[in-house]
Structure formats: structure tokens, C-alpha cells
Specification:
This protein has 2 helices and no strands. By secondary structure, it is an all-alpha fold.
């Protein structure tokens, strides 16, 4: 198998599995991080437009509230007014 070349500068890559040489490796990581960040921002913007909120609101908050209510019934010492 021929040696792999850096996709940024054409020098020999660090290994046959690597895309970049030692000098360009950090630049490649920064580019990948930026691309991932942009993709995530676009995905979240699309979810907001569609009214989807995958954070801990909505259904997750209702489940959490029900679990806390049940725990307060079972363990009244956790309630503020029980002290």
C-alpha cells in the first residue's frame, strides 16, 4: 500500500490511517471542530423552527416532576415543610 499523503499540504501523513502530517494535524482538528459546531448550530436552529426542544423541558420535566413528587410522598423528610 502506498504511503498516505497529507490532505492539506501533500507531505507524508503520520500514518496510513491519518489524513494529515504532523505539522497539519492541529489545523485538521480545528477544521473538524468548526465543521461539527456549524452542523450542530444548524441542527438546533432547525429544531427550534419546528418547535422541537430536546433539552430537559416538556416531557422530561413532567417525568422528573412526577418522580420527585413520588419521592416526597415516600420520604417526607425531604420536604421543606416537614422540618
Amino acid at each position: 500500500m502506498p504511503p498516505r499523503l497529507c490532505t492539506a499540504c501533500g507531505a507524508l501523513a503520520v500514518s496510513r490511517w491519518s489524513k494529515y502530517c504532523a505539522a497539519c494535524r492541529e489545523i485538521g482538528r480545528q477544521n473538524q471542530k468548526a465543521a461539527t459546531s456549524r452542523a450542530n448550530q444548524l441542527r438546533w436552529a432547525e429544531w427550534r423552527e419546528r418547535g422541537i426542544d430536546p433539552t430537559h423541558g416538556g416531557e422530561a420535566a413532567a417525568k422528573r416532576g412526577a418522580a420527585i413528587r413520588q419521592s416526597n410522598v415516600e420520604k417526607p423528610r425531604r420536604r421543606k415543610d416537614a422540618q
